[in-house]
Design goal:
Helix content is 8%, strand content 51%. With 157 residues, the protein is mainly β.
Length: 157
């Protein structure tokens, strides 16, 4: 599991065909910055905030409602993704099909999970973060990953 990284993602919200971008920066095990379009979530030891990058206004909580139009949470690349997989695995109509793939230039481990309404695709990088999710509501795919944190992504404007 990578302790430090910067990753860029593309997101397609199927309802309305809304295209979004996201950047995840984990500076160490105690500081994370997740930027989805113009909203930045900063999460550190004892401090959390949600900032609007266009107005430079921040609130001292993680407020996922700020990105509700994208249909994901600030933790889309980690525990939120794992939670979705556990729920879908429990609803699976037949065994998942596992395979490996290369996504964003990185090795990924994938599973196609057949559920009512179709098959959902879950892929994680071998180093841990989400590589691809393709579901009825949203498609998320990693574009780039580097093993150094982009400190500029901790700014609030």
């Amino acid at each position: 599991r990578l302790a430090q990284f910067s990753a860029d993602y593309t997101i397609l919200t199927r309802l309305g065909d809304k295209e979004s971008t996201a950047t995840v920066v984990q500076a160490d095990n105690s500081r994370r910055s997740i930027t989805i379009n113009d909203v930045r979530f900063l999460d550190g030891v004892g401090t959390s905030s949600t900032c609007d990058l266009t107005t430079a206004q921040c609130e001292a909580v993680i407020n996922d409602a700020r990105v509700s139009d994208v249909q994901i949470t600030h933790d889309f690349y980690g525990s939120s993704f794992a939670r979705r997989l556990r729920v879908d695995a429990g609803r699976s109509l037949s065994p998942a099909r596992g395979y490996t793939d290369t996504i964003g230039g990185q090795g990924a481990i994938c599973a196609d999970v057949p559920v009512s309404g179709g098959t959902k695709v879950y892929c994680a990088l071998e180093t841990g973060p989400l590589a691809r999710y393709d579901g009825n509501d949203v498609v998320i795919e990693i574009v780039t990953l580097v093993a150094t944190p982009d400190e500029s992504k901790f700014a609030t404007s």
